[in-house]
Amino acid sequence: MADIRHARVVRSEAAGEGFWLVGAVAEADVRALPGQWGAFHTDLPNPLKPGQTLRRAWSFARVDGPRFELFVAVVGTCTRWLAERRPGDALPFTGPWGSRFVLDGDDAVGFYAAGSGISAVATMVEAARLAGRPVRLAWDRHGGLDERVAGWRAAGADVELGATVVEEGARRWWYAGDGERLDAVLAGRDVPPGRVERFYTPRPA
Question: Which is more confident, 166 or 10?
Answer without folding.
Answer: 10
